[in-house]
Amino acid sequence: MTHLLVGVDTGGTFTDIVLLRDGGFKVHKVLSTPEDPSRAILQGLRELGILEDIEVLVHGSTVATNAVLEQKGVPTGLITTAGFRDVLEIGRQTRPKLYSLRSQKIPPLMPRERRIEVKERLNERGEVLIALDEASLERALDALQSAGVEAVAISLLFSFANPEHERRVAARAREAGFYVSASSSVLPEFREYERTSTTVLNAYIGPLITRYLERLEQELPSHTTLRIMQSNGGSISSAMARSEAARTLLSGPAAGVVGAAFVAQASGFTQTISFDIGGTSTDVALINGIATETTNGMIGGYPTRLPMIDIHTVGAGGGSIGWFDTGGALRVGPISAGANPGPAAYGRGGSAATVTDAHVVLGRLIPEAFLGGTMKLDAQAAQQAMQVTAERLGGSVEEAALGIIRVVNANMEAAIRVISVERGCDPRDFVLVAFGGAGPLHACELADALRIPRVLIPTVPGVLSALGTLVADTLKDYVRTIMLPAEEAQEVATTVLGELEQQGREDLAHEGIAPEDIRIERYLDLRYVGQAYELLIPYGYDVVQAVLDFHRMHEQRFGYSDSHERVQVVNVRLKARGVGDKPAYERREAEEQVDVRPFARRKALFTGAMGEALAYEVPVYERASLPVGGVLQGPAIIVQYDTTTVLPPNWRGSVDAVNNLVFEHVEEGESA
Fold first, then answer.
1. Contact between 52 and 220 (Cβ < 8 Å)
2. Given a cut of 70, is residue 628 above it in pLDDT?
3. CB–CB of 178/147 below 8 Å?
4. 17: phi then psi, degrees, rounded to nearest 5
5. Distance CA 258, CA 422 (A)
6. At what angle do helices 397-419 and 439-450 cross, to 10 degrees?
7. Which of 12-16, 127-131, 245-249 reaches the highest mean pLDDT?
8. What whole-number distance in Å separates Cα of residue 290 and Cα of residue 284?
9. Quick one: which of 467, 462, 463, 432 has its CA closest to 450?
10. Relative to the CA of 271, which of 50, 172, 488, 560 has its CA 20 to 30 Å away?
11. Helix (H) or strand (E) run with residue 538 in it
12. 221-245: per-residue pLDDT in tens?
């Protein structure tokens, strides 16, 4: 059998497949089948003729995300401590829109009658105040069975300090035939609302993920190992994904960030901003050596405290529609034309002006070269759609198109500022890695606005998330709340981390990771006494040093620190990482005499210094024909099957040793 690794990313429109065999990559795209995503995966594998040869398949899935966003999970119940059935309803007493008089909170994933109390009580140290009442537990299980519940979430008060009651409830619930999600297994951490919400999300999608993965495994050869991407940028076994389904909620976007870090490192860059534009949204993330993480995620309005890559998403993509608000200002997104009817240029009946239509009007998208020539765009329909916007603005069609691009770029710029400037990082110190179907169209203009000096366009931008699944490590996260003053935490933190490390090594061993390939990373969640938020600090078995690092990070993040203020250790965290062999990019030497020739020239418009539309005669290049060491001078357009790349005026680019495009800003008057 050929040694074959396959990465799969399931998107809303396309399912992307990247296969790695004998050090070489091959990519393939098939239309997604949302009703059963496994059908598209299997179809693509059969079209490639590799189904029987796959050794490992790593899958970035949207099944969990879509189930929450569309509220199509299984009927779920909650068992909690008496007096706490309404914790999901009460939440943090915050409103989605602070000043709206008609603001409506998102209702919990299960109605009140499926949130059942049992008699038991622990104090904050885990000591038993009221023993678990078995009769109340039996009544709770009977009530949930009568309600037709399939999955049960269990979140008892202070179970993170003592999980014994919760384990007994979980055991009885499993005996009763329920899919069980217990907070002491999913998230043994304080904060009642977030812990309960995370546990409920895990129960809500768990049976769906289980059934989906079982169907996929039945169709794959028995010798194929199936792995699933997690929100934290690592992969886990299919069996682990079934029991901890909530860890896959941002599976696809996380894979894109991992892929961006991988291709950037191949080109010698470690500080990058990943910039992924699809048809509906833009996902951005900061990679400061490693991808920035958060434990304050939100999926469909429901909080989750499981570690995930800190990805910020805005409703701005190629299908985003331009519209006017009540004040007459031009807005773009978050409403999207989607794939059907799609932008007017798709010729499927769409009539609203979109970002894609703007690029067609400006000459940046070439109708004959879209999707490698397999789909021709309707330039006349794009012009007609843009004419409506132009009449409202009182300008030309070209000015309206530039206006839409400027507005959507402003939305994307704001997203990048959230994960960089607002986190205390200067975007000028980073490289912008642009991918997705529309990322390379906007990257240089975004870099200009943020004064980012370099832009990197991967070899296969449209399938980078699928590539990311292949290069991800096996990763397990563990957390335990200890809530101690820093001066008292040294011994407890060290002891707890030792226990978590043992668990991590055992779990990775079950995943087939050799002991010499396991790396352990230790962290503390620290805060000033009285604060309601923490910072994650690397821990080298010295709490005093961790406190000093906390003061420095607090200064960077929030602009102030106080070395005289008492510090509290809230949680201890551990990452157990199984490091696998990464595919190596083939590096090539630049040719002595590099000849870069366009295959066509066309008119394209860009924004001038005063905001006016300037027309240029622009060379058009085929990406596959660009040699290593080849230099391009903007303005230019580069086309390939999965995307179109725009190099604006005052930018120049080159093809590096691993075939990535690296663009740099050129100051006025500077020689190319």
1. no
2. yes
3. no
4. -125, 130
5. 22
6. 70
7. 127-131
8. 14
9. 432
10. 560
11. strand 535-538
12. 999 999 999 999 999 999 999 989 9
Closest CA to 322 of 390, 371, 276, 379: 390
From first CA to last CA, the distance across the chain in angstroms is 50
Rounded Cα distance between 613 and 554, Å, is 45
- Alpha-carbon distance values, 453 to 245, 287, 441 (Å): 40, 16, 17
319 confidence band (pLDDT: 50, 70, 90) = confident
594 near 631, Cβ under 8 Å?
yes
Residue with tokens 């304080």: 190
- The answer to whether the CB of 277 falls within 8 A of the CB of 646 is no
Strand pairing report for 320-324 and 330-336: antiparallel
Structure tokens at 284: 């951005």
For 346-377, what is each residue's pLDDT tens digit?
Answer: 888 888 999 999 999 999 998 887 777 777 88
Query: Phi and psi of 475, rounded to 5°?
Result: -140, 130
- Look at residue 13 and tell me whether its pLDDT is greater than 70: no
Element (H, E) at 207: helix 192-219
Tokens of 113: 């009658």
pLDDT at 325 over 80: yes
Q: Is 360 helix (H, G, I), strand (E, B) or coil?
A: helix
Q: What is the pLDDT of residues 504-558, one digit of tens each?
A: 999 999 988 999 999 999 999 999 999 989 999 999 999 999 999 999 999 998 9
Token readout for 204 is 């809500």
CB contact set of 626 (below 8 Å; sequence gap of 6+): 596, 632, 638, 655, 661
Q: Tokens 């226990």 appear where?
A: 499
Secondary structure (H, E, C), 417-486: HHHCHHHCCCHHHCEEEEECCCHHHHHHHHHHHHCCCEEEECCCHHHHHHHHHHHCCEEEEEEEEEEEEH
Whole-angstrom Cα distance, residue 63 to residue 239?
A: 16
Q: How many CA atoms lie within 13 A of 170 on its CB side?
A: 20
Question: 491 near 482, Cβ under 8 Å?
Answer: no
Pairing of strands 225-229, 320-324: unpaired
Q: Strands 302-304 and 308-309, how do they pair?
A: unpaired
Environment class of residue 21 by beta-carbon count within 10 Å: exposed (0-12), middle (13-18) or buried (19+)?
A: middle
Task: Output the pLDDT for position 64.
Answer: 86
Paired with 205 in beta bridges are none
Residue 671 predicted with pLDDT over 50: no
Separation CA 648–CA 646 (nearest Å): 6
- pLDDT computed for residue 339 by the predictor: 66
